[in-house]
Each structure stands twice: as structure tokens, then as C-alpha cells.
Design brief:
About 35% of the residues lie in helices and about 10% in strands. It has a six-stranded antiparallel β-sheet. The chain has about 220 residues and is of the alpha+beta class. Among the domains are: about 35 residues; about 100 residues. The radius of gyration is 52 Å and the shape is globular. A hairpin with a 2-residue loop joins strand 4 and strand 5.
């Protein structure tokens, strides 16, 4: 055939074939083993996952399947002007201070003033209450007594009005510091009363324990 001839295919030795095949087998074995390890790995509990991810992840419970009730939240604006009608409906302010009544208060002591103002506020029928005046006894000169003049004192309405005023001051004897009251011959004290011979048919006489003279800064309440 001359010089040129077809090259014969050189057979590889068994050792060479084994050397070429071995790396692929090792790769497949390693890959298969890794696959098996991943497939067999158990899932971690939620608590462990949370620890690994903390503090960037928070594990929360799933929302309930039923819809939650509506929650209405009203945010008040600091710039919003108050609604006078709404404020009046929600808040009723009661002024309990007692203004000066019909009695002249000059020379009266504080508890006597409180009684005089309270009677003026509660009994508008009374238009004249006497206070400090000269007397042989010390009660009026010292600002401890009042004379509550009763309109038409001998009429049924006048008598009933005087009775109500006596009942009122005796019911509040502790707060008013009442010593006594005299009306239509009766003498009344916080401990009881007695009848006969005490006069005072046209006015209710009221005596208090005083409490001292005012300084001008007092506020009197109902």
C-alpha cells in the first residue's frame, strides 16, 4: 500500500480507561450523597428559625380566618377648632360659688356671711336681711347674728316660709356653724328646740359661731 496507510486505532489500556472513568464516578457518588443528605434533613422548628433570624424577623401567628370586627379610631387634630355645641352637650359646668346676697356683710364673720348668702340664693322671696347693729347682747355687734325679715310674716305663706328657713339652717347646722335660731316664740338649736316666750314674729333670728372676720380672699360655696 506504499508509504501511506490508515492509522490503526490505538486501544487504550484498561488502566487508562479506569483512570478516566473514576472522576465521573466520584462526582456522581458525591452528588448523589449530597442530594440524599439534603433530602433527609428534617425541617427546623419555628422557634429555632426565629432565633437564627432575630432580631430582623419576627414570627407571628397566622391571622384568624374569620373577619375581625371593625375598629373605629378617631384622631383628634390639635389644630381643629373646638365645637361649642358638642362641648356644651358633653360638659355641664355648675358654678357653686355664692355671690353676695341682700345682707350687708360689713362687720359679719365668715360663717354668718355664708348663712346670709345661702339664704339669699335659696329663698329669693327674702329681700331684707339685717346684720351688724347696736344691741345689749354681743351677737349682732360682733357679726354673729342675722335677722331674716319675712314678708307678710303673719300670713300662712309667711309662716311657712319662716319655718322652711329654720329647717334649712338646722339641717346644715354643722356646715354653717349654727348656734341657734329664733322664730315665732320658738328657740331652736342643733341639739333640739323649745317653745314659748322668745318673740321674733316678723323675722327669723339666726346666730352662728362666727369663724373669724374675713380677709377679703374668701370664696363662699353652696
Amino acid at each position: 500500500m506504499g508509504r501511506h496507510s490508515v492509522a490503526k486505532t490505538r486501544r487504550k489500556s484498561p488502566a487508562a480507561v479506569a483512570a478516566a472513568v473514576a472522576p465521573a464516578a466520584v462526582f456522581l457518588a458525591v452528588a448523589g450523597d449530597a442530594y440524599q443528605r439534603v433530602a433527609r434533613e428534617e425541617p427546623k422548628p419555628v422557634a429555632e428559625v426565629a432565633e437564627e433570624l432575630a432580631p430582623n424577623v419576627e414570627i407571628v401567628a397566622a391571622a384568624p380566618t374569620a373577619p375581625a370586627p371593625a375598629l373605629v379610631i378617631s384622631h383628634a387634630s390639635s389644630n381643629a377648632a373646638p365645637n361649642p355645641a358638642m362641648a356644651a352637650a358633653r360638659l355641664r359646668v355648675v358654678d357653686r360659688t355664692l355671690p353676695a346676697g341682700v345682707a350687708p356683710e360689713s362687720g359679719l364673720q365668715v360663717r354668718t356671711i355664708l348663712v346670709a348668702r345661702s339664704i339669699s340664693a335659696l329663698f329669693p322671696e327674702i329681700s331684707n336681711i339685717g346684720g351688724v347693729r347696736p344691741d345689749s347682747l354681743r351677737w349682732h355687734p360682733d357679726g354673729l347674728a342675722l335677722d331674716v325679715m319675712i314678708p307678710d310674716p303673719s300670713s300662712d305663706a309667711g309662716i311657712e316660709l319662716g319655718n322652711r328657713i329654720v329647717s334649712y339652717v338646722m339641717a346644715n347646722a354643722t356646715r354653717f356653724g349654727i348656734q341657734d335660731a329664733i322664730w315665732r316664740g320658738g328657740y331652736y338649736t342643733p341639739g333640739g328646740g323649745r317653745q314659748g316666750g322668745y318673740g321674733h314674729y316678723d323675722h327669723v333670728h339666726i346666730t352662728t359661731t362666727g369663724g373669724g372676720y374675713p380677709t377679703g380672699s374668701e370664696i363662699y360655696y353652696r
